[in-house]
Amino acid sequence: MALKEQVIENHNEFLESLRHRFLDDDRKAALQRFEKLGFPTKKDEEYKYTNLKEITEKGYNFFPKESHNITKEQLDELHLGEENFDWITFVNGKLHKELSKVSIENVEFLSFNYALNDEKHRDIFEKYFNTIAADKSAFTNLNQAYCKYGFFLKVPKNVVIEKPIHVFYISQNQEENTFYNTRNLLIVDEGAKVEIIESHHNFDNTYVLTNSVTEIFTYPNAKADWHKLQNDNDTSYLIDNTFAKQEKDSLTTVNTFSFGGKLVRNNLDFIQNGSNINSFMNGITIIGKDQLVDHHTAVHHNQPNCESYQNYKGIFNGNSHGVFNGKVFVDKIAQKTNAYQQNNNVLLSEGATIDTKPQLEIFADDVKCSHGCTVGQLNEDALFYLRARGISKKEAQALLLYAFANDAMQNIDIEPLKDKISKLLAEKLEVDIEF
């Protein structure tokens, strides 16, 4: 049975499995919107270069088995050497405290499912939940209809969380293809600060489809950093929708590092709701074989004196396919906007392709906006220079590619994460680099 039919057929059983029912009407309405929209096809402009048939024509289990046999050694391999970090571990959708380390204080942290069951958080959910997530997308509506897994975190005013928090989503011991709808809600109050690292890991040979929605609210003078480390196996699909709403004088960063997964679609939407806002989006994609990674970004400059920076680098080998579509919207009152957008790509094989489309829509007249993209091969003169100094062709290529991708990591201030990304770059490029 195709996924759309399964979505409709399983919904009543899903609702019956929930302890909380106060969102039932919203979930049913979301399912109706999804049913009307259907999954996007290549006829849809936003999915013109991304064929989802591989995902949508498979069947999935909507109720994953909770049992697992994850070992400490397996978990240790996923860590970044971050002994001083906190981490949250979800296995087969369920939060496992015994596999987590949470030392943060003076914050409200709950698993998403528990938060839905906790009546004292009802007002917060009614105020924030699904208020910035787009309801015109099939996948966001599907997530709203089925969301259960994920976490809720509210950082109170002026609280600075010194330790980064690494969130692991693990699937293991599933005998069938499995479907997860993860939902994250992050609220960073005035003057607060937090850094999140998110990663997904499939330990089985069966297919996993994760449909994730994250809503980030950053209040005045607050700082929120969200780092997505995407390095899953070849039987994993990830559709990620992240929405960030910022108030005046705030700073929000979303970094996306895509190395693994059969098909990955990242939708990133920033909404600037005040003046003197800074928004940063960086991405590094290195894929091969027949992988596909698609980045769609949008920044809405709605107020004056704000800045946004987008810097995405792609390296494509084998028969891999990359997509980048970055949009910047500048409202007529958003004078003194400074928006920068750049997408640079290197194709390493004849079978690799990239479709890139940076876009600007500007309705103000006193702005500084730029956008651009490049697609090419390695510089032959630079290769010759390195080889003339005794460096092999393979190592010379890898060093140039490492340097090409490296500047997209410059605003990572978590050293273990920066080291991990550097090591993954080196592994993908098959070169020995000292850190």
From TrEMBL:
Residues 9-167 form the SUF system FeS cluster assembly SufBD N-terminal domain. It comes from the Bacteria. InterPro entries: Fe-S_cluster_assembly_SufBD (IPR055346), SUF_FeS_clus_asmbl_SufBD_core (IPR000825), SUF_FeS_clus_asmbl_SufBD_sf (IPR037284), SUF_FeS_clus_asmbl_SufD (IPR011542), SufBD_N (IPR045595). GO terms for biological process: iron-sulfur cluster assembly. Residues 175-404 form the SUF system FeS cluster assembly SufBD core domain. Belongs to the iron-sulfur cluster assembly SufBD family. NCBIfam families: sufD. This is Fe-S cluster assembly protein SufD. It comes from Chryseobacterium taiwanense.
